[in-house]
Structure formats: C-alpha cells, structure tokens
Design brief:
Helix content is 58%, strand content 0%. It is mainly alpha-helical and 98 residues long. It is globular, with a radius of gyration of 13 Å.
Length: 98
C-alpha cells in the first residue's frame, strides 16, 4: 500500500495517469508489475537499450527525460531531479539491497 508524496501508488510506484494509460490497478501487485514491465520495455526500446535513460524516463517521466537530453546533451542526467539521479545510482551501481 505504498504511496509516494508525489502520488505514485503501489509496488511499481505508478502515477495514477500512468496506471490508467496502462490499464492496470496500481494496488494489484500482479497488474502493476506487468504494466511496469511493459512500460520499461517501451523505454528500453525508445532509448535503444540505454538503461540509464529508460530508468530516468520511468522515474522522472519521459517528457522531463527527453527535455534534459535535448537541452543538455551528454550532461542530461545532471539536469533531472536529484531523486532521479539517486534512483539511477542505486540501481545501476547495484547499491540497492532488497
């Protein structure tokens, strides 16, 4: 029953609009994880296997990620929210422990 201050809900921390677009109930773990997996697949495909950009799109949103990439080029990550920067560091450096 996790709910972030920003309104992201459930195990996959989906925003309500995203859950609606994916046709999933964010509070149903199976639905939410299935939807999150489809969404990540889309982002991985969009960014041609660049997991950092895919994860950034999942966390900060595709609009913010695209804007950072288009505006700041190679320095794109430094221009996303600190939360997103830490999210990527934890995942990509294997610092997250379940």
């Amino acid at each position: 029953m996790a709910l972030s201050p920003a309104g992201a809900a459930g195990i996959a921390q989906l925003m309500p609009e995203t859950a609606t677009r994916l046709h999933v109930d964010p509070w149903d773990p199976e639905e939410a994880l299935s939807g999150a997996a489809r969404l990540m697949k889309k982002y991985v495909d969009t960014y041609h296997g660049d997991f950092a950009k895919a994860l950034a799109a999942y966390n900060a949103g595709p609009g913010a990620t695209e804007h950072a990439i288009a505006t700041f080029g190679a320095d794109w990550l430094a221009h996303l929210p600190t939360e997103t920067q830490h999210y990527l560091q934890r995942i990509l450096r294997n610092e997250y422990e379940a």
